[in-house]
Amino acid sequence: MTDTAVLGRSQGMVREARHLLFTVTPGAAWIIVFLVLPSAYLMGVAFMTNGPYGLPQMPLSLDSFKQLAGFGFLGWSPGNLYTLLRSLWQTLVATGLVVIVAYPIAYYITTCRAKWRPIMLLLVVVPSWTNQVIRTFGWMNLLAPGTPLSSVAESLGLIAPNMGLYPSNFAVTLGLVYNFLPFMVLPLYAAFEKLDTAQVEAAQDLYATPVKAFWHAVFPQTLPGLLAGIVLVAIPAFGMYVIPELLGGGKALMLGNLVANQFSGGSNWPLGAAGAILMLLATFAGLYAMRRIGKRLGGGEEVVI
Amino acid sequence: MTETSTAERHSQRRDEPHDGARSGVDAAGSERTASAIHMQGLHKRFGASTVALDGVDLTIEAGEFFTLLGPSGCGKTTLLRILAGLEDADQGRLTIGERDVTEVAPHHRSVNTVFQSYALFPHLSVRDNLAFGLKMRGVDRAEREARVERIAEFIQLGDLIDRRIDQLSGGQRQRIALARALVCEPDVLLLDEPLSALDAGLRSQLQVELLRVQKRLGMTFVFVTHDQDEAMVMSDRIAVLNGGTIQQVGPPREVYERPVNAFVARFMGHANLYPISARQGQRVTTELGELELEPDLDTPQQGGGELLLIRPETLDVRLGRHQGVNHLAGRITERLYRGSHAEFRLAVGDTTLQATINNRGRRLPEVGDEVTLVVAPEDLVTVAN
Amino acid sequence: MRKRTLKRGLSAFWWLTLVFLYLPLAVVVLFSFNAANSAASMTGLSLRWYHQLFANDQIMSAFGNTLVLALTSSLIALVIGCLIGYGMYRHRHRKLGWLIVLIYLPIVLPDIVFGISEMAFFVKVNELTGLLGPGLGTMIIAHVTFQIPFVALIVYSRFVGLDPSLFEAAKDLYASPFKRVVHFMLPTIKPALISAFFLSFTLSVDDFVISFFTSGPESATLPIYIWGAIKKGVSPEINAIATLMIAAVALAALASLVVNRRKA
After folding, report:
1. Which one of C171, C174, C193 would you mutate to disrupt binding with B, by most B Cβ within 10 Å of its Cβ?
2. What is the pTM of this model?
3. What is the mean pLDDT of the segment spanning A184-195?
4. Residue of B176, B195, C43, C104 with fewest CB within 10 Å of its CB?
5. Which residues does the UniProt record annotate as the domain ABC transmembrane type-1 (chain C) (predicted)?
6. How many domains does the structure of chain A reveal?
7. Which residue ranges form the domains of chain B, and what is each CATH number?
8. pLDDT single digits (tens) A241-287
């Protein structure tokens, strides 16, 4: 009797394991075969030599990384370094601007009546449902030479005559802010909605000035949302391809363009793959940093959504 | 005096025959037979170190309102889940009616559960929730609808039946959950703290309703609770569990008045317990002094327990000093006035003691009063440590 | 007093932000009705770009590709993602850290790395086996890959939000494993499945970068066509296609609003 009961128990465990296998395997296998394997292959490509049509060849070498650092046939050139720095700078500026815009917007939505809030959030999010190419195309229409916005900028002396606001670094920044604003508003809104107003009232009671009350009671509570937003904005912004390609013209390229061009136009797969590795490293470093900061500040709160 | 009235009711109930199958009237008005449950050596572990059940042997009679009572973590819920088939015992055997169901999947057992959270399906209407079990059993549509109507009438659901689940209050959900389990006409109904989420008033109202339903159906009910008052009000018999083992099984009055050990004594209510230092015939010596008790109350197993139990309400508190058998001199140190009764803490010699007095409108002793405590020999029990 | 000034300031900022968010879309819609062949000035209203649009075979086939790609990939991702979401829920007490990492990988990987990885991989596989030549097939595979995590997470969070007793109640009420799936689980998570499908669909239609790198000569989708047209020099037809896509999104937004209203 006892033996059969024990047997039944182990049968149950086998059943559970089979269940796990059945439910998880298709998806896990799909992601492994069609994403992990390809990424691993791409990393391998970075260590190969560039062949005649841009395709990777043996032998293994570190040429692509040297090229990425700027060493070419003609000696060192700063082009790629500039591109990298520009990517970092654009990411930094765009993320900062997104925070500055999203913070009051998210707060404002929470102060409105409950029945309006879902509609307001929807209004913020809907533009991001349209295709990125179309949204960026809209900005091209708005910022092109001869448009009202460009004329205003021209008469203020901000740009040279007949140049238009696009293509330019400024247009890229604007495009990035536009593109990523909803990704910051949503987590910040969630943080504001959970805000413990008793803490704010206690702070007003104790610190008196609104600035101090904000700094001590409001800001720390919204920090998890802010960090989540930064992850959602900064990481994809750093690897952005479409916006700099369309709004930046040739002079505002970012790392994403450098990588992509090696696979479409210029064709140097190993160089592109090396750039992709750099991007991956930056991504995981960014994720790791945010996790650490999040853990230190917000306790156990998960930063990645 | 609530204690006596409950106790009286149970003493009457104890006289009813328990043996064999008891019959009752089901919701359809036809005769039905209830099933007894036999458990033999049930063991259950979670992980490597947590022992939930450590050898449970128990027989629940057919048609009985049986309660599993104990603090959280005592194993009562695990035992109920094993009855339902939601958990497999590591060892042991379980029989419901004539059938060994130890390894029978829950959907093949004629057992239904009223869950603590009610577990009503949110995607279904009340009506479809009630019909769910019948539908799964393959009962045809017309029969299903008829039985749902009958149970709705029996539980007096009224117009609740056409509501959505999210439109129901806690008490209403509780009754729907009960109806959903009953409509399947199981051999045994399991109730997992079904009233714990309700406020006190509604709770006592539903206690009465639940009892009435059980008596009319004559169905075997196994009820889990951590509330000893609820257990005493509802049950034909109670099993008190602690640490995965059964401490005592018996009718409420027996468990309350003649607990076998200190744990049961304390769990069932306020208990004054004193180690017995010496014993001579029917006289025992404790910190309180010498007290006399009746021979047949010197349990467990007549060998005598190591502790003397005095329930606070068995003490007679008299003002002033008096002499006599089982008379103790004390001084009131604390008084908690509770309207219908008052609780006192007293200093007797070097020790303290709790007493409860019913408020009969007379003068209640006050803090500092010198009093004499009198306890009848038949109200004193010895228990194991 | 100060509070009211703050509120007014915020309100003004809110409306300004809305203008910022909708201006580019509004411009696209406006120019789609432009009579002139210009992106800089409106000369009059006309539907000529829409007429040209429907007469353009390339656009029509790109439209067809977009729909086929979005529908097929969303359905496949729904099945696989639903299974994995349920597996994650059911075995949530196990240590499934590797699975969580795997699930998040497609989300955190930059689009461009995702796209070129797939491209390089498909080219290599094609070279070795002759299979997986660039086209709708490779695009569907790539799209399913980034849709699975979203479906899985939506389904998982729906299950986590349920009272665990419900699963036991279904067992207790005589439902066999198969009947539990049909009569309890699927109906219970239906709202999650619907929103997961719509999210997958939207993600697919929205995607450009990954589609771009996995597409073949015959399998251009609308975003890819638009991209090409922009690169070649702006054709006003783009405004018309873009307007139609914006209209579709607006409809979806309205629909989601109605659904939310009904739920409340």
Report:
1. C174
2. 0.84
3. 90
4. C43
5. 63-259
6. 2
7. 2-257 (3.40.50.300), 270-383 (2.40.50.100)
8. 999 998 987 778 888 888 888 887 657 888 889 999 999 999 999 88
